[in-house]
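Worked example

This section walks through a single chain of length 85. The input is the sequence exactly as stored; nothing has been trimmed or padded.
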Amino acid sequence: MVCERNESSHGEKKRTKWINRDREAANEHLLRDYFVFDTLYDLSKFEERRISRNLFLRIARDLECNYEFFQLNWDARSKRDFTTI
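Given that input, the structure is written out below as tokens.
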């Protein structure tokens, strides 16, 4: 998301430019490709990134359980925030 906040010489704030990145669709795409039961890519493709899928998911789960930053939240627009994965 790109935000631009500029103030003119008179102290007026200009409208923030917001770009829709469709992060919900991107999250669904990521899950569908790598993490659901019938994935698009097999384990060998995931492990080309030098970590096993099970280890990655265990780390993600531990982060989500132990740190509030990684827990699911809702943003100011009442949209679901980023997931841990």
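What to look for: Helices lie at 23-34, 43-47, 53-66.
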